[in-house]
């Protein structure tokens, strides 16, 4: 991205942060306030990463830091995968049959007993429009205008007994 594009992205992220802050005042539940707070934190983290990228771009242009170009490349790559998780994050390691929720400890999804082997991973289920409330359209706008994915999902366990 060019410095102008980064400045525009910074401006959009800061604007969305203000929109979410203002929208938070209309929340009627603790759950909704928590979602707003997590989105604000995610936007602040994205703004911080863009600031770092812009600072590194200045260092590359002025030639004051010989490693700035490598750092810039790494920061840009990291930012390209940046995602805001509002509720739950699920990581699954299919090789070891383990999963972890929200960066916690790894849990084993594989069980075995005299009836056989069972592998049961939890699932991510998107929050409904009703659960998202007024954040739904804002989240869509953030993704459309900045390219940053916003995940609004919860982990559920769908173990079927007797199977």
TrEMBL record:
Keyword line: Plasmid
What is this protein's record name? Uncharacterized protein
Q: Which domain of life is it from?
A: Bacteria
Q: Which organism is it from?
A: Sinorhizobium mexicanum
């Amino acid at each position: 991205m060019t410095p102008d594009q980064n400045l525009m992205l910074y401006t959009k992220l800061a604007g969305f942060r203000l929109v979410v802050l203002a929208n938070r005042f209309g929340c009627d539940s603790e759950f909704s306030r928590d979602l707003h707070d997590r989105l604000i934190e995610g936007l602040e983290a994205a703004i911080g990463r863009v600031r770092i990228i812009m600072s590194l771009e200045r260092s590359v242009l002025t030639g004051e830091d010989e490693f700035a170009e490598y750092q810039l490349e790494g920061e840009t790559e990291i930012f390209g995968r940046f995602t805001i998780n509002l509720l739950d994050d699920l990581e699954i390691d299919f090789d070891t049959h383990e999963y972890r929720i929200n960066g916690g400890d790894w849990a084993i999804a594989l069980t075995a007993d005299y009836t056989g082997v069972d592998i049961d991973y939890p699932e991510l289920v998107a929050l409904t429009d009703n659960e998202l409330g007024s954040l739904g359209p804002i989240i869509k706008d953030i993704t459309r205008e900045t390219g940053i994915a916003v995940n609004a999902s919860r982990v559920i366990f769908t173990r079927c007994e007797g199977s």
